[in-house]
Structure to design on (302 residues):
C-alpha cells in the first residue's frame, strides 16, 4: 500500500474496510486451510511491519504451519481455538496470542461463528513450512492437540 | 518485552490485558494531554514494530504533535474525533487512521465515553515535536481545526 494512494481515514463496516480488498487467505493452493480470508490493513514500508486481518467462517481453519518469523495476534471477532506449540487454548475478542519462531500454530473457528483476528508481522519474513508425517505424528502424540487437529 | 518472560496467551479483560502494565501516557510531563493511559501489547524486537493500546477517559485527549515516524491506528473502543493534518473526522470502533510523517495529529474523546485505539509504530522512531505559537496559529486558521482544538 502506498500512502499517497490510500486515504488517511478508512472506515470499518462489518469486518470490511474502505479501500481494503478481501483476498484469498493464500495465493498458493498447496497448503490446507478452509473458509478463511485475508485483508491487509497496513503495509507501509516505513512501519517495518504489516497488520493483517484474517477471518474464518464457522468451521473454518488456518493452515497448520511454522516459520522463523513471529506472529503477534489479537483476536477481533468471535470465539474459537488456537494451537501454539503443544498448547490448545480457547480465544475470545481482544485476547493476545504470541507465536514464537518455529512454533507450530493453527486457528480454528470451532464455536459455530466466524473467528477473526489481527496479525502483526515483520515486513521481511520467511515462507511457512508444513508438517511432514513424522512432525504431524509428534504433534498428535499429545491428546489435546490430536483432538484439536481432528475437529 | 522478552518472549521468554511473557505468556503466549494473554487474556483480555475490559480493555486490560494479562501481564500488560497500564502506564502513564508519557513519562515526560512537558507535553499537554489529559486522562490518557498506555499499554504496550507487543514489543518484541524481531517484529520490527510495536503494538500499543491508548485509552482516554471521556473528555480526555492525546498530545497535539508530529514526528518523522508514521502511526498506523485502529480504533478499538468508543467514539471521538481525530485530527490528522487539517482533517477532523469522527471515529468509531475498528476504523483505520494513517498518520503520515510530519503530520500534526491528536485524538479527543468528545462523545462522553472512553476512546481507545491500537497504534502500530516502528521500533526505531524519533521523538515527537510540539507546535510552536506560529504553527498552532496556522492550524487554527482552519475553522474546523480551531473548533476541534477548543473542545
Amino acid at each position: 500500500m502506498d500512502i499517497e494512494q490510500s486515504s488517511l481515514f478508512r472506515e470499518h463496516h462489518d469486518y470490511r474496510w474502505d479501500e481494503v480488498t478481501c483476498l484469498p487467505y493464500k495465493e498458493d493452493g498447496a497448503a490446507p486451510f478452509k473458509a478463511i480470508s485475508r485483508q491487509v490493513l497496513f503495509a507501509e514500508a516505513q512501519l517495518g511491519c504489516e497488520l493483517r486481518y484474517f477471518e474464518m467462517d464457522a468451521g473454518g481453519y488456518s493452515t497448520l504451519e511454522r516459520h522463523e518469523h513471529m506472529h503477534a495476534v489479537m483476536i477481533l471477532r468471535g470465539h474459537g481455538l488456537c494451537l501454539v506449540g503443544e498448547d490448545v487454548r480457547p480465544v475470545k475478542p481482544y485476547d493476545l496470542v504470541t507465536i514464537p519462531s518455529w512454533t507450530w500454530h493453527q486457528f480454528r473457528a470451532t464455536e459455530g461463528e466466524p473467528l477473526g483476528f489481527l496479525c502483526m508481522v515483520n515486513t521481511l519474513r520467511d515462507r511457512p513450512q508444513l508438517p511432514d508425517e513424522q512432525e504431524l505424528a509428534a504433534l498428535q502424540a499429545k491428546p489435546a492437540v490430536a483432538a484439536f487437529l481432528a475437529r
